[in-house]
Amino acid sequence: MSEATEQHRKAAPESVRVGVLTISDTRTEETDTGGETVRELLEAAGHEVVRRSIVRDEAGMIRDRITTFLADSNVDAVITTGGTGISGRDTTHEVAERMIDKRLDGFGEIFRMLSYEEVGAAAMMSRAVAGSVGTKFLACLPGSRNAVRLAMEKLLVPEIAHVVFELKRHAKKEG
């Protein structure tokens, strides 16, 4: 790891505030294993889930809820679960692509590489995506509990504070 990366990680906040949005036509609060996994892993790492919701896989509803979460001054990042596959009902990717200012291509690439180690060629059907929306971070994960756990443990929990730090640091310089 580079010296600059290590310095930035040390300067990053210990805790970030996250909105968790589940996209599903069938999940309820009781059956939302993906959203619950995100919450559990974030809180175990010292982060705070400040908003949580479930919306149907309808592009307008997804966009509206993500926009509401991102507009909240108490939210540093939004993590979604669900709607990133290739079925006709999966629209999260399209919504996120239109909202993201700077896409972190490596997120999806590394996620699919890690997924390949677990599920083989089926990993190519994931359209997980992440990037910045203004000074906030948006990450869209598949809905399966195993995929969520993989993305959270290997990618987001270790780096979310660093990503938020970078987005805010550069916003302060520009402002």
TrEMBL record:
Keywords: Molybdenum cofactor biosynthesis. GO terms for cellular component: cytosol. Pathway: Cofactor biosynthesis; molybdopterin biosynthesis. GO terms for biological process: Mo-molybdopterin cofactor biosynthetic process. Signal peptide: none annotated. It holds the Pfam family MoCF_biosynth. InterPro entries: MoaB, MoaB/Mog-like_dom_sf, MoaB/Mog_dom, MoCF_biosynth_CS. Gene3D superfamilies: MoaB/Mog-like domain (3.40.980.10). Residues 19-163 form the MoaB/Mog domain. May be involved in the biosynthesis of molybdopterin. Belongs to the MoaB/Mog family. This is Molybdenum cofactor biosynthesis protein B.
